[in-house]
Each structure stands twice: as C-alpha cells, then as structure tokens.
Amino acid sequence: MSLSGKVALVTGGSRGIGFATAKVLLENGAKVAITGKDQKRLEKLAEISNVFAITADIRNSNEVKNAVQKIVEKFGRLDILVNNAGVFPRIKQLHEIEEDEWNEVLDVNLTGQYRVTKEAIPHLQKTSGSIINISSDAGLKAYQGFNADAYSATKAALIILTKCWALEYSKNKIRVNCICPGVVDTDMTKPFVKTQKDRDFMNAEHPLGRIGKPEEVAKAVLYFASDDALWITGAILAVDGGESTK
C-alpha cells in the first residue's frame, strides 16, 4: 500500500491515534504534516521524525487556512486528509451540561472538521484525494451510562457527513470514508482505565477481549488512503474489537 509521492495532513497529530497514523503514513512513503495546539510537543516530534508540524487550533478559521496553505507551499499538493482532532468532555448527564461546554465540543469535533475539510477540498479536487474521518463507536450507538451527549452527537454527525461528502465530491473522484474506533489506549482514554479493575472491565466490553492500540486504527486509515481502496467511498468502518456488534 505504497503512498509514495502522496502528501497527507493529520489533524490532532501530536499524540494518540493521530501520531500513530502519521507514523504509519510516513512508513508507507507519504510526506506527512500534522497539526495540534501544543507547540513544544509539535517541535519535539518534528525533531525526532520526518513530520512537518504546524501549530494550529481547528477552532480558528485563520489558523486552519494558514496551516493548509503552508502544507501546499511546502509540498506542492495535498492528497490525504485525516480528520482526527477532537476533544472529550467531562462525563455529565444532559441537564448538568453547561451551554459553553456543549458548544466547545461541537466547535472542535464537528465545526472544526468542517473548517479543515473546507480548506482542503480545493487542493484535494486537483489530486482526486482521500478524506478519512475519525468518528467513534459512540457515533454508531448509544451506551448505557456513557453520558457524553455532545461527543456522541458530533461523532454521529461526522458519520452522516462522511456519506454527504462522499456523494458531493464523487464527481471529483475524492473518496470520503470514516473509521469508528472503540476504546483505544491513548491519553484521552487513560482517565477511564486508571486501575486494573477499570482495564479489565473495558477489555471485557470488547468481544475480542481487549481495548485497541492506536496503530491498529492507523492501519485502517492507511488502507482507506491507499490505492487499494480506490473503489471505496462513503464507507463506515468499525475498528473496535467487535464492541459495536453487541
């Protein structure tokens, strides 16, 4: 699945699934740009890897526009967009969620994806590129006691947007697909697996008996980004150890 000559942008690429994805794309020949808010972390990653790191907050349209412009100026093109950046809110029931908390999650997890995709589309139209949206099992079904309504809403919205964009840009041969991970061992999920009891519970929730690894999601991204998936668009793939089948 060689990506030689391809240029990829991975948002939220400084850690977790994002960085694992950047690493896998690099290993398979792509030139990779990552964005994030932590400038020091991005600079450190740029020093130890071949990623092109750009500090950008996807809540800010100007920063998003500047990031995409810098990528195209440096590499001359854009072939792959991985919409990975996101936030996870504090667990609360709906009646306890403040409106600013609600809006913050929507601004990052949904409107942020719109901002980046909007800026990337004109360049992807030139390359018949590929967009991979990172959603979640929480966008596929409701979970008893999960109580992260804004998060679930944004992840469900990203699933239907994947299908909308797949149809909207099919004439440009832009492929748009979506991955829905289960619980993956990242900084975002660490608060939920603090003890061995927590980890045992999370492992048991997945029919294959364990939570996922970031690189396992990254390899699914690689497939969608590669020419092996040239006849696939609008697909929604659960990468979750079977969790969403229950």
UniProtKB/TrEMBL annotation:
InterPro entries in UniProt: NAD(P)-bd_dom_sf (IPR036291), Sc_DH/Rdtase_CS (IPR020904), SDR_fam (IPR002347)
Recorded superkingdom: Archaea
Pfam families reported in the protein's UniProt record: adh_short_C2
Database matches in PROSITE patterns: ADH_SHORT
Family: Belongs to the short-chain dehydrogenases/reductases (SDR) family.
Protein name: Short-chain dehydrogenase/reductase SDR
Upper taxonomic lineage: Archaea, Nitrososphaerota, Nitrososphaeria, Nitrosopumilales, Nitrosopumilaceae
